[in-house]
Amino acid sequence: MNLLEIQSALRAEQVDGWLFYDHHERDPLAYRVLGFKPPRMVTRRWYYFIPATGEPRKLVHAIESGMLDALPGSKSTYSSWSKQAQALEALLQGCKRVAMQYSPKNNIPYIGLVDAGTIELIRSLGADIASSANLVQFFEARWTEAQLETHLEAGRRVDRVCAAAFAFAGEKLNAGMAVDEFSVMQFILESFAREGLFTDHGPIVAVNANASNPHYEPTAEDHAPIVKGDFLLIDLWAKLANDADSVYYDITWTGSTARVIPGEQVRIFEAVSGARDAAIRRVQTAIEAGQPIHGFEVDDATRGHLRALELDQYFIHRTGHSIGRDVHGAGANMDNLETHDDRRLIPGTCFSIEPGVYLPEFGVRSEVNMYVGADRAIVTGAIQKELVRICG
Predict the structure, then answer these.
(1) Which of 70, 102, 220, 257, CA to CA, is 20 to 30 A from 362?
(2) Of 346, 308, 320, residue with least CA distance to 133
(3) Are 370 and 380 spatial neighbours (Cβ–Cβ below 8 Å)?
(4) For 316-337, how does the pLDDT look when each residue is reduced to its tens digit (9 = 90+)?
(5) Angstrom distance (rounded) from CA 162 to CA 18
(6) Measuring CA to CA, which residue among 14, 53, 60, 17 is closest to residue 38?
(7) What is the mean pLDDT of residues 5-10?
């Protein structure tokens, strides 16, 4: 934890301080931002307040009085609920507006981790509560240069695996052998292991109508065969397995096993890839001009492109998500559909661009990752320009 940097950010956000709270380790963001791990199971509530200026203050239960000893600041203890309220009031004395892991109307659920009762308690003590969304992004979602390198290296490996997975399906079909979604999924997971990659779940391997389910995953019991003439979508994500601080790389590619790819599939792919490229241009233009750009504006770019083609009604999810140590990170999402994400894209952060059009017969998604630097934004891996021709 860099206390001076946090306090500088608090003053920039015009809040009197940042109140961290946890019980039973429900708020992983608190531990990441503060840079410590609890020394034992958190069975009682603790509070840690970083004021915009001055020394941090701790409030812990008497039977877990050492819970926050790894952090700087003065300490108070409580045991009864009444003493807790009194000590909290003293902790926040003089504060009119404090940040917490709170999102108005739970608009950004990644941030809305503090329970409603605790919000009520803090408000009853006279403090207005601001969302910590911008603060969390600044301290949790920004990558180090080393993390960017892990992402780029993971990207090179995942891109190889993705190409090999399509080739694996094509070789089986060209040889007249059976192949299905689950066997391609297992090929990808085995390839990840050989490449030194880790994934928490997935990947998605989906043919035809299954590709119109954005979160479809085949299982050993429930999967479809892949035959000639099929449309195939592969969505795969992974990070380096040997680096605890590594970050994810997450892409989606599509292809056809037909000898002549149907015109409708080509049309939809071109619409989706055009929406993807519209978002890429929107981000790059703003960053290179030094202009602020927010998550919802990126979503507007993809959705506007598809709206002009009368396909926006088939685009049923946000344009993209923050990427970090978890595949869905704590930074700004590219979203003006599921939520109105008004967080600004800031240097050192990465996110996906993945518009999709999901028709009853098949679905197309094209996904790339973008990294925002100080004065430019880049796509960090290969960009699909046309549908993969899977069969020879």
Answers:
(1) 220
(2) 346
(3) yes
(4) 999 999 999 999 999 999 999 9
(5) 43
(6) 60
(7) 96
Give the C-alpha separation, 24 to 31, whole Å: 12
Sign of CA dihedral 197, 348, 373, 252: positive
Question: Phi/psi at 353 (nearest 5 deg)?
Answer: -120, 115
In which band, very low, low, confident or very high, does the pLDDT at 41 lie, cut at 50, 70 and 90?
Answer: very high
Answer whether the bond into residue 203 is a cis peptide, omega within 30°: yes
Q: What percent of the chain has pLDDT over 90?
A: 97
| Structural domains counted in the chain | 2
Q: How far apart are CA 352 and CA 251, in angstroms?
A: 8
- Give 76's strand partners: 59
Angle at 388 (CA atoms; ends 387, 389), nearest 5 degrees:
110
Q: How far apart are CA 72 and CA 333, in angstroms?
A: 33
Confidence class of residue 87 from pLDDT cuts 50, 70 and 90?
very high
The candidate with the shortest Cα–Cα distance to 342, out of 88, 78, 134, is 134
Neighbours of 194 (CB within 10 A): 9
Residue 297, number of CB atoms within 10 A of its CB: 19
Pair 317, 174 in one domain: yes
37 with 103, same domain: the answer is yes
Looking at the predicted structure, is the pLDDT value of residue 146 above 90? yes
Q: Is residue 160 within 8 Å of residue 195, measured between CB atoms? A: yes
Query: For residue 131, which amino acid is it?
Result: S
Residues 302 and 290: their CA atoms lie apart, in Å, by 21
Q: Mark whether 174 and 254 lie in a shared domain.
A: yes
213-227, pLDDT tens digit by residue? 999 999 999 999 999
The β-bridge partners of 57 are: 49, 74
Residues 332, 137: contact at Cβ < 8 Å? yes
Best CA proximity match to 246, nearest among 191, 208, 197? 197
Closest C-alpha to 213, from 366, 367, 361, 358: 358
* pTM of the predicted model as reported, rounded to 2 decimal places: 0.91
φ, ψ for residue 23 (rounded to 5)? -155, 125
pLDDT band (50, 70, 90) for residue 274: very high
- Whole domain around residue 117: which residue ranges? 3-140
Local structure of 248: helix, strand or coil: coil
- Give me the pLDDT at residue 209, please: 97
CATH number for the domain harbouring residue 35: 3.40.350.10
For 211, phi then psi, to 5°, come to -70, -10
